């Protein structure tokens, strides 16, 4: 480990950043240095600008991903090297605000029923039933399944926050069958070492593969990813009558603002809102003139 990498790692650890963030930030700075074939402390704001353009125009990364790269580079230069680059000099790309894609409930059923094996089915059901993030599912332990209180304990999720989510009886039935078959020890969904099952967390890639394979088998053309199941979970809860603060708590959002986007995706809420046009009386269409060109001869 180089001295620079050690310094950055210590700065990240001092601030108690998650392991996912630590690994991601270190990798981004490493890629930045490799791009310019130079030690990163020899680079500066101008190289960051050039690199941002490269990520957008050549690698075709979206604005949010480039923003994540920018955050990592700003941390390295501002926190590790103590260089004070204002945001105006090293800006974050503006990200377009788009509504997430979700599955219908019928599609969710088809997806789960199309899982290639019990391992994949249990993972898909867990994510859809709880709305947990893929990293949270990977770290889920057997002891986190509280069948007495019918809860699942999510430990140290995003922002280092713990939370509990309901344990569905249907999910519990599947997990019990899965446990009798897999017999996991520590982690509920164990990973592998050299092709053999091991007592270590599964990688996020496995969950991605489970989503992709099931969607293909189910004939779902949407790009089904783990986070799409989380979006579907939140939207279907709102359509079922859950209030926004409850959905916020279940998703583990620190703020209500990111949760409110699901109101725009809930058909029940959109229908209930109606439109101003429905509340006014208009003249009959019979009294409305037609264009001369459309008159019958």
Please tell me about this protein's structure.
The chain is mainly alpha-helical and 297 residues long. It has two domains: 3-80, DNA polymerase, domain 1, CATH 1.10.150; 105-272, Intergrase catalytic core (hpI Integrase, Chain A), CATH 1.10.443.10. The chain contains 13 helices and five strands. The chain has helices spanning 3-14, 19-36, 45-57, 63-80, 105-113, 118-130, 134-138, 169-182, 204-218, 226-239, 244-251, 257-260, 267-273; strands at residues 145-146, 151-154, 163-166, 190-193, 196-201. The longest helix is centred in the first third of the chain and has 18 residues, at 19-36. The protein is globular. The mean pLDDT is 91.
């Amino acid at each position: 480990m180089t001295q620079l990498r050690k310094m950055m790692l210590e700065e990240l650890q001092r601030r108690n950043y998650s392991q996912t963030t630590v690994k991601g930030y270190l990798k981004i700075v490493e890629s930045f240095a490799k791009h310019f074939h130079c030690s990163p402390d020899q680079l500066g704001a101008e190289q960051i600008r050039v690199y941002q353009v490269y990520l957008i125009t050549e690698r075709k990364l979206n604005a949010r991903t480039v923003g994540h790269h920018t955050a990592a580079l700003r941390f390295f230069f501002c926190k590790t090297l103590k260089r004070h680059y204002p945001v105006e000099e090293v800006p974050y790309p503006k990200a377009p605000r788009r509504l997430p894609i979700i599955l219908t409930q019928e599609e969710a059923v088809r997806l789960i029923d199309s899982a290639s094996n019990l391992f994949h089915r249990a993972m898909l059901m867990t994510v859809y039933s709880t709305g947990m993030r893929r990293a949270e599912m990977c770290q889920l332990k057997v002891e986190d399944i509280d069948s007495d209180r019918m809860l699942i304990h999510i430990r140290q999720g995003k922002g280092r926050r713990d939370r509990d989510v309901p344990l569905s009886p249907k999910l519990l039935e599947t997990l019990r069958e899965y446990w009798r078959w897999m017999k996991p020890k520590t982690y509920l969904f164990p990973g592998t070492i050299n092709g053999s099952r091991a007592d270590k967390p599964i990688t996020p890639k496995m969950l991605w593969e489970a989503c992709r394979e099931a969607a293909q088998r189910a004939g779902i053309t949407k790009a089904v990813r783990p986070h799409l199941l989380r979006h579907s979970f939140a939207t279907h809860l709102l359509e079922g009558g859950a209030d926004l603060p409850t959905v916020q708590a279940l998703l583990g959002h620190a703020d209500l603002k990111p949760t409110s986007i699901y109101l725009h995706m809930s058909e029940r809420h959109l229908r209930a809102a109606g439109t101003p046009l429905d509340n006014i009386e208009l003249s009959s269409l019979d009294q409305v003139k037609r264009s001369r060109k459309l008159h019958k001869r």
